[in-house]
Amino acid sequence: MAQTETADSIPPQELQEIVIQAPKVIRKSDMDIYHPSKSAVEHSQNGLQLLNNLMIPTLTVSDALGTIQAAGQSVQVRINGRESSIEQVRTLLPETIKRVEWIDNPGLRYGGANYVLNFIVSNPTVGGSIMAQARPALNQAWGFYMADAKFNTGRSQWEVGGNFKLTNKIKTHRDYTETFTYPDGTTLTRNETSRGGTMDNSFANAWASYSYIKPDTTVFMAEFGLFQKLTDKFLYNGLLSLSDGSDDIFLTDSHGDKGGTPSLSLYWQQNFAHRQMLIVNFNSSFYFGRSYSDYMEQLAGATNYLTDIHTNIKDRNQAYAIEVDYIKNWRNGRFTAGTSYTANRNRSQYESLGDDIFHQRQDKVYLFAEYFHRFGKWTATAGMGVQYTDFLFKETNQGSHSWSPRPQATITYSLNQNHNFRLNFTSWQSTPSLAETNIVPQQLDGFQWRVGNQNLKTANSYMLTFRYGFNVPRVSGSFGVRAFTSPNAITPLLQWEGDKLITTYENSRGLQNLSFFLAPQIEIIPNWLVASGYIQFRMERMRSNGYTHHSNAWSGNANIQLMHWGFVLSGQYVRAQRDLWGEKISWGENLNIIDLCYNWKSWQFSAGVIMPFGKYDQGSKSLSKWNRNEQHMRLDMRMPYVSISYNLQWGRQKRGAQKLMEVDVKADRSTAGGR
Asked: Are strands 156-168 and 603-610 parallel, antiparallel or unpaired?
């Protein structure tokens, strides 16, 4: 039969090239995973630029300003699971970043973070790199400069780097009007006419680290950092016109702070048999600095001041934290448990009050356990954390302590790789800050004062989020609804005491908000033109004894990027989120940026403009019946800039030590009174 079988009638054919294209985003039960495309890597010179080129919906990334935000909230940045800074992200080589994990429902071991962004960097090999960048403005004393070097020897890596950010005498203006209502019902309105001002905000960072990595066995890392705030000063001059017919008043309002914060971090991770892991992390930081506030009012032609206020505070504050975590993995499950201890020791010296010294002690203990399991298309995570907080004020021997539970749970259903649904419940605690508990009276102007409250309790917050994630041809993103409540939020409280209007703090009756959000990414022209953005509508209610306030507002951002022939043209618009807190609605920066860059070998050249359209706006609006006011901060932010970056590499880049958890510790600082 073999001899008589007819020949195959199908002639030989050459197979054409097969291109397998992975989806832009892989949706897992607890995160979204983005793999950088070849084009995104080629058009980037550092990790922050690569993140910007990924165009992740919800995220607002600005390489020019050095910021990462999501839905108006802060984002916890990590490198291989280790909590890091934006400066450290800037030192990453794009070629070494294998994927970026976007976590919008962080678990208990992330310490109450709003969002987590985790860069997974390639395995260590020999080699090293030197990176440098300079970005000066052309019309202002503003700019950013950085350099970083990594050297790898065997299983060890040494790193040293630093950066400098310059903001010197940027012109400012303030639009401000306020109406005071006295207890007897009479009112006084004060309108300010701006006479100009300046803003300084310059700082420097330096860091050095050593890491040892024995794959699948041991990781050790030691890092020393120094943050130096060289100057953070706001100076404003204005003319006050009063509704009672009094003579106009010239005012000068100046406040700021400066100081240094050295920090030390030690990390050890040990892997054991049966997929078990033990992690120990220690952090410490110290703050040595001072803050000040000067406020003066003077009639035209007068030699004496109507109001002459000077506040100077010197801080010597310390913070220490240690955390120990245990992780056990199974095929379809993971168990994590940990405990941490954080200690803050604050010492404030009031040089303007006869050098009086005040001490505050704060101790926190946190314990948690969390379990994750996969059931086919369903996954579930549930855990419980408990936080103990203790305060003590040495001079008055006043203090408080409390236990606060922190439950958390997530359920995810994955229809397939392109569609999933997630329901997440999370909770966290907010402890009173040094400024909120400082009982030293601070005068703000002619009759406004501020004083802290040492009877504040730790505030609890709860959030429920439902999200639908989708991938369809050329479009990916998410849509969802979020409900939030903080039944005993720590908020400012205004009250009259005689002829003084006092701002203090209280545990309110609570803040509730409901928000709807849509975050799409649209591939308009494949591999050429991409747009992404985030739009949110939020309804809020704030209650306390004597008031109930409501606020409804839109916010969001839009990004568009054209990438081809080595050029990247990008545009960004941000409308800041409006936050209702206490009796005030405040908003961050409304801004826009246009940037064009060109990549050639190891070089990148770029030029751009900050605020090419519209006016820079950052401000607040008070809803208090005792003091209604609205303030708009205007900066001369229309700044063209140029940027030059260079990367020198040899061998292959070694990743930073893989740090799977982080205990955060930050030395507190005082805040001098400021109108």
From this structure: unpaired
Three-state secondary-structure class, residue 53: helix
657, 610, 655: which is closest to 636 by C-alpha? 610
Q: Can you tell me the distance from the alpha carbon of 71 to that of 481, in angstroms, rounded to the nearest whole number?
A: 13
Q: In degrees to the nearest 10, what's the CA dihedral of 537, 542, 548, 550?
A: -10
The amino acid at residue 512 is: Q
pLDDT at 114: 78
Q: pLDDT band for position 675 (50/70/90)?
A: low
Q: Which of 478, 575, 470, 576 is nearest to 58 (CA)?
A: 478
CB 184 within 8 A of CB 155: no
The amino acid at residue 645 is S
**What is the separation of C-alpha 383 from the centre of its chain, rounded to a whole number of angstroms?**
25
Q: What is the pLDDT of residues 625-658, one digit of tens each?
A: 999 999 998 888 899 999 999 988 777 544 444 4
Instruction: List CB contacts of 8: < 8 A, sequence separation 6 or more.
Output: none
What's the rounded Cα separation, in Å, for the pair 137 and 130? 24
Containing 34, the helix (H) or strand (E) segment is strand 32-34
The DSSP symbol for 143 reads E
Beta strands at 76-79 and 116-121: parallel, antiparallel or unpaired: parallel
Residue for token digits 């100081």? 259
pLDDT in tens, 45-82: 888 888 888 888 878 888 888 888 887 678 888 887 77
Burial (CB count <10 Å: 0-12, 13-18, 19+), residue 153: exposed
Q: Which backbone phi and psi does 53 adopt, to 5 degrees?
A: -75, -20
Q: Which token pair is 182?
A: 């006295």
Closest residue by Cα to residue 477 from 531, 538, 537: 531
Instruction: At 473, list the tokens.
Output: 């041809």
Task: Please answer whether residues 41 and 28 qualify as being in contact, where contact means their C-beta atoms are separated by less than 8 angstroms.
Answer: no
Neighbours of 361 (CB within 10 A): 14
Angle (CA) 530 533 537, round 5°: 160
pLDDT at 86 over 90: no
Tell me the one-letter amino acid at 609.
Answer: V
- Listed in sequence order, the residues at least 6 apart from 28 whose beta carbon sits closer than 8 Å to its beta carbon are none
Which 3 state secondary structure label does DSSP give 250? strand
Contacts of 199 (CB under 8 A, 6+ apart): 167, 169, 170, 172, 233, 234, 235, 635
Closest CA to 532 of 573, 567, 481: 573
Cross-sheet strand order for the sheet of 448-450: 442-443, 448-450, 500-507, 490-497
Q: Is the pLDDT of residue 409 over 50?
A: yes
3-state SS class at 90: helix
Residue with tokens 């949706």: 27
- Name residue, tokens 């012109």: 171
Distance, in Å, from the CA atom of 69 to the CA atom of 80, rounded to the nearest integer, reads 20
pLDDT band at 532 (very low <50, low <70, confident <90, very high): very high
